[in-house]
Amino acid sequence: MKKIIYILSFLIVVFNADLKAQDIHFSNINEAPLFNSPANTGFYNGYFRFIANYRSQWGAMNKAFQTIAVSVDGGLFKSKRRKAFLGLGLTVFNDRAGSANLQKTNALLNISGVIKTGKRSAFSVGIAGGVSANNANYNKLTYSSQFDGNTIDNTLSSGETVVYRQYTTTDIAAGMAYEYAKVKTDQDHDDVSSVKISVGAFHLNRPVQDFGPGSNYRLPVRLTGNIITHFDFEDTKFSVTPTFLYSRQGKAWQFVTGSYVKYRMKVGTKVTGQKTENAIGIGGFYRSKDAIIAKLIFETGDWAFFGSYDINISGYRAATRYAGGFEVGIRFNNLASSLFDSRSEFK
After folding, report:
1. pLDDT digit string (tens) for 58-92?
2. Candidate ranges 10-14, 96-100, 215-219; pick with highest mean pLDDT
3. Pick the CATH number of 2-344 from 2.60.120.580, 3.40.800.20, 2.40.160.40, 3.40.309.10
4. Could you tell me where the DSSP H helices lie in 88-150?
5. Cβ contact 87:73 at 8 Å
6. Are 41 and 198 in contact (CB under 8 A)?
């Protein structure tokens, strides 16, 4: 536990700045591990994982931000006879918004190394690299010169010369993660306690945003600090998952914090041979100066279905009328019908 305290103190010092975030973000921060740190690649209980997220934000602006993200990852050479294994994964997202359908498509290949540091702990280091394509339909842009006194008339000449263009850049990321977990076996169920801390750094090469001739603006590095915990209450079917995510990019920052309360309708235990568990949960989260987030999750065996809704509380609420946006997603985590055996392979 001393190691956890040291790392928490480190995170508080490193991320203590007055900033607000710029990159895409998700309300279901528990379900976007590879977007929080490449070190989370393959670093989980299971053999193969697939997560898909869809987010629609600020529908009141008519052309809302629409984000689709997919990640797949798994462990290579994972065995209880080995103290280390490799993680391999892929993340892809597409984000679009506005009248010109401004969009970014990003694809990164993730590689990590996970090593057992103790009977109940493990540590990982990961890197990611790939490409980012940016484009828009600039012919759909309108200008103040097209205002006819009542409305914008896009048949009028704007007098503008559009010099924007599509472009593709490279993207590089890296990160570290540490997890401490223990399982207490009981006669009819097992109770799990775990704490996972990860840090990430994205856009390390600071790619130039080349929308037009002479562009020299470089995308700032995004730094993240993430803490995800899970605590089963002994002799009950209830669990909590306090979670915290801090991001900063350039002069922007944000944090998201909150927890699920889950009811385990079907619990897993070594004694009875029941290896998987089902649970339903509700959660409340807060994104700094932006939104209060209500969440639902249903987990059944290898599958999970989750959703959230942002209640906007920022100054923009005058336009949104508190409707920040919604997000839905699914997760498949192949445990090979062996929840506890898979844990023992690297913990």
Report:
1. 666 666 788 999 999 999 888 777 889 999 999 99
2. 215-219
3. 2.40.160.40
4. none
5. yes
6. no
